[in-house]
Specification:
Elements: E1 6-10, E2 43-45, E3 52-54, E4 58-62, E5 68-77, E6 83-93
Antiparallel strand pairs: 1-4, 2-3, 4-5, 5-6
């Protein structure tokens, strides 16, 4: 499994309701690309306000060593609408298996 990190989107489901993630179906980043194709479309852009708004998507993440997590992007802006303060929440399953239940 080494080198098989990837992501997949779990659309139309809330973060709290995801108790386990799939073992298959992950998209890996291309070798010469630093962005995963699943994660690059995480936001909506408003042409009138020029602001990014995270899409309500929960992502399943598979690490290079075969562990799993769920991830939700919550925001992109610092106080005062300065960009670059990405806020997210996640649950990492470091012990193996695909269960990602918050304590």
């Amino acid at each position: 499994m080494e080198g098989q990190a990837g992501a997949t989107s779990l659309e139309d489901i809330t973060f709290e309701s995801v108790s386990s993630v799939p073992e298959i179906g992950y998209v890996m980043a291309e070798r010469n690309d630093s962005v995963n194709a699943v994660l690059e479309d995480w936001y909506n852009y408003s042409i009138t306000s020029h602001l990014l708004q995270p899409k309500p998507i929960v992502y399943a993440i598979r690490t290079a060593d075969g562990r799993y997590a769920k991830l939700e992007i919550l925001g992109y802006y610092c106080v005062g609408v300065l960009p670059g303060c990405t806020t997210f929440r996640y649950v990492y399953q470091g012990g193996g298996g695909t269960d990602v239940i918050s304590n």
